[in-house]
Amino acid sequence: MSYSTTTLPNITLRIGAEWVETAETDTIRLPYDGTPVATAARGTRELLGRAIAAARAAAPALATLANYERAELLERIAALVRRDAAEFAQLISQETGRPIQEARGEVDRGLSTLAAARDLHGEVVPLEAVAAGAGHLALTVREPVGVIGIITPFNVPFNLALHKLGPALAGGNAVVHKPSEQTPLSAWRLAKAVEEAGAPVGAYNVVTGAGREIGAALVESEGVDMITFTGSIATGEWIRAHAGLKKVTLELGGNSAVILEPDTDLDTAIPRLVQGGYGHSGQLCISVQRVYAHSSIAKSVTERLVAAVEKLKVGHPSEPSTAVSSLISEAAATRVEQWTQDAVERGAKLLTGGVRHGATITPGVLAEVPASARLMQQELFGPLVAVNSYDDLGDAIEAVNATPYGLQAGVFTQHLQRAFATARKLHVGGVLINDVPTFRSDPMPYGGVKRSGIGREGPKYALEEMTEPKLIVWRV
Ligand code: NAD
Questions:
Q1: Which backbone phi and psi does 303 adopt, to 5 degrees?
Q2: Interval 277-306: pLDDT, tens
Q3: What is the pLDDT of residues 227-246, one digit of tens each?
Q4: 94 C-alpha vs ligand 1 centroid, how far in Å?
């Protein structure tokens, strides 16, 4: 059980045309067993300032690239990622502890994210719809915001970076990226691909380091025009409060739920629940955390889910057959263990799993979990799913909505009318009918309501956020 052997990468900063080492470094370790996987430079405020200056200097050149030239740049980056896909996947797996099969999937997803970031256009504005506009023609062109600060979380370090970098470059912006201090490997490797693809110098700068220092300084910098953030609610709130008049988009947490109506096709639903609840050890913002199964099927749902979950192979992330590996840290696993105990103390039944070994939690299923349990209210970020039963669909919808989050939700039913009526009543950013809320296809609009965020991603939507419409009016 090991990755292909190479010397430990030395993760440097990327500032303009330079690869910068720092006096102080951090050892990045495989979360599964603590094996060192890289040495990472630790950015400073001074180096961040240089990176922002490099981006500012690059911004005019990027703004003047024609759309097709920006699209070709993204294609060249994608070709290099495709060429070195195995290396990218290994770095993602090593920094996150994500099973290698899933890390390969993340690289593929990143390629589709890059491919989708190219459709930039303004619109003709019908000024003559009102008398005051008579005799005028108007159109908008989309102009870059300028310098965009990207801040990303640990869990999907590569594809989430591309969800920001792709549209930023397609919109003609320069970027300073602060990856999670736990997972800087793939961002550094991506910067190498961006250089090899021939991007203008300073287009993509990467500064690693602590969130409260380097991330905070990026948020507060006068040289940055927009912050695009994915991460926890607490950090998102801090950013919103300190970003001043910058544009800010926030992709935050969730505790996604699925409703299973009496006519649910369990042959379809159970494998999807397994993938949605236990993929990446439940560390996705749209992981299935709560299942509301109609009382007529609840028993078979729990029995079949437990049987499927007990077959999941738990192990080292480099092993191709591993389905579930560690969480990002032992501290994270200890928190999940405590929240599981909290649910059990409040009356929940732990049907299987939920046992911690170091940073790893065995895949678990809980039933009859009181709404007061922490894992019903907050984001668990662990490989456990709570299954509760209901008799009335209205009560299930109310339970799904009764949390501070609103990212995505799912409903399984063959009944068209009930499916759409439910979709309209769920207070979330996206509803999946006959699928789990964990479904995400990269081009789709993606984001949350309530405390799950502000703004939408998906390249087309992020491109709108990352450009300004300039109005041009012509008196004829
Ligand atoms: P986090 O908020 O702890 O950290 C995210 C990033 O913010 C890191 O790069 C960190 O260094 C930086 N940061 C921390 N404090 C900062 C500050 N004061 N100013 C600026 N930057 C700061 O989140 P995490 O634990 O890395 O990631 C897990 C969270 O991300 C979960 O809540 C998950 O739901 C969320 N997430 C959301 C989405 C989505 O699309 N909605 C996707 C993936 C993850």
A1: -60, -45
A2: 999 999 999 999 999 999 999 999 999 999
A3: 999 999 999 999 999 999 99
A4: 19
For residues 240 and 272, the answer to whether their CB atoms sit within 8 Å is no
Ligand 1 atom 6 nearest Cα: 153
pLDDT value at position 321? Answer: 97
In this predicted structure, the answer to whether residue 120 has a pLDDT above a threshold of 90 is no
181 is an active site residue: no
Question: Cα(457)–Cα(163) distance, rounded to whole angstroms?
Answer: 7
- Gap from CA of 231 to ligand 1 centroid (Å): 2
Model pTM? 0.97
Residue minimizing CA distance to atom 30 of ligand 1: 231
Distance 422 CA to ligand 1 centre (A): 31
Q: Where are the alpha helices (DSSP H) in 370-458?
A: 374-377, 393-401, 416-425
Residue 223, number of CB atoms within 10 A of its CB = 17
The torsion angles phi and psi of 275, rounded to 5 degrees, stand at -65, -45
69 as an active site residue: the answer is no
Confidence of residue 1 (pLDDT cuts 50, 70, 90): low
> In b/e form, how buried is each residue of 129-138, taking b as 16+ CB within 10 angstroms?
eeeeeeeeee
Query: Which residues does residue 128 pair with via DSSP β-bridges, in sequence order?
Result: none
Q: Is the pLDDT of residue 469 over 80?
A: yes
Q: How far is CA 205 from the centre of its chain?
A: 20
Q: Which of 95, 102, 261, 285 is catalytic?
A: 285
Q: Which residues pair with 409 in a beta bridge?
A: 257, 431
Dihedral sign for Cα atoms in the order 440, 442, 443, 446: positive
Q: Rounded to whole angstroms, how far apart are CA atoms 93 and 3?
A: 9
Pairing label, strands 226-230, 147-151: parallel
CB 397 within 8 A of CB 405: no
Closest ligand 1 atom to residue 216 Cα is 19
